[in-house]
């Protein structure tokens, strides 16, 4: 019903398609009447009599004969007239059917476009929690294969249903009015077809849903394999991956075979019922012709009508399959379209107004799937103030980075910028004010310039170059064959890990956000380059709040305040010197990371002095 309502938006296309359906049905129903009249006219040539039983056909033949001229033999002239009318009806049917198919396909394509855009737009707005729980391969399958199934519903099911109802309904009236007994016999297959179609639809719908799920699983396997192709090659796991794909393909094939079996058996049984009805018409009608109750032309008319119905009856199987597929794929697609994002603007949300740019966490707690990763976290990041966050893996460091741009909302407490609760401001204004540089950098298959300027595609070249220089990437880019126009491979595979991270830093600082969060974004960068990046950013961040999250102390020893987080709680806080003096967790980490390198450097210096003396 939802797909049907969508098709009603294209009123003119739908009206023209329906007109074409009525014309095609009319021309198609005229064929058996004219064929029956042609048989009567042929008999008139032999015995000298000439009678056309059907009044509609007789009127049409009389009009055509008047135009052509009666000639010596009225039966012969009528036969020529009928042949001309048959030709006109055949051409009219073909043109009408073509236009009907064109309009149906056009509506389907427009609905497909609309659904693809709605689906893609919804994926852009769905919260991180949703994307974390669903596989990319499944989303791709829904956005391509399922949309295609919904698109085809208009032509293969909706308009085909109207065509069959008009054709069979009008034909039923004509046949019953001509001869009640033969009319009922010729339509005796309809109840069986209706029962079989209903049963097949229920089976097909369930199977289509399972088949779409298997196609999603197949896409997942391929997506993971291609995304990790370097790992697959490095561990020589091609055979294992092929077996995985073969297993998934076989499961899909088995379901597809079931689908084919259901459709083939339904169409075959419908065909058998139809041919039995046709045989009964021939038997009963033949007896009536022998007894003189029916002319040979009238019997031919009934048989021709049934012959014309044979193809539509076979199409009933395709129509039922279209309903089943549209229902299953539509259900999967609309299940995503109907999701309300967990993180969205309030109805009365206002743009964030930056006065100073002070970020505050007020007793914030958060958890994934009920398990708390942050408990009662409070701190402040002011303009020109750098907050460093360090702690063991899983302690909640990255969770803080995800809460600042409101990728998630706190379970308890609240977060403010200049006193404004993040839940009360618009997401667009918040994310323009907050720049997050992730550790896991994603680059698009585009030029270096387009990747740096992704947040502001219309940024002038000098801003792109300045941001790249701040990130210590400018010299490298200038040495590339195409400079800033050099294409970056898929997901940035043509760059090293450190280069990707520096490009990500350039992409964030290009936007000049009021607050910058570095989430372990220098993990793949060597210490010397990191020092140069920090020095270059000193001027840029002097009037901005900065949060540096890292597992490497050398990245945040310069911070104005350092927070040591463990099990989601701040267990130590202070400057580098104050934390060393406390002799706690931070000091232990310092002894593990920094002290050995300092002692090694002192030994090297002593050796150099000894050699010089």
From TrEMBL:
Residues 359-592 form the ABC transporter domain. GO terms for cellular component: plasma membrane. It is found in: Cell membrane. InterPro entries: AAA+_ATPase, ABC1_TM_dom, ABC1_TM_sf, ABC_transporter-like_ATP-bd, ABC_transporter-like_CS, P-loop_NTPase, Type_1_exporter. SUPFAM superfamilies: ABC transporter transmembrane region, P-loop containing nucleoside triphosphate hydrolases. It is a multi-pass membrane protein. It comes from the Bacteria. GO terms for molecular function: ABC-type oligopeptide transporter activity; ATP binding; ATP hydrolysis activity. Keywords: ATP-binding, Cell membrane, Membrane, Nucleotide-binding, Transmembrane, Transmembrane helix, Transport. SMART domains: AAA. This is ATP-binding cassette domain-containing protein. Residues 15-325 form the ABC transmembrane type-1 domain. Pfam families: ABC_membrane, ABC_tran. Its main location: membrane. The chain crosses the membrane at residues 12-35, 78-96, 157-174, 180-198, 269-290. The lineage of its organism: Bacteria, Bacillati, Chloroflexota, Dehalococcoidia, SAR202 cluster.
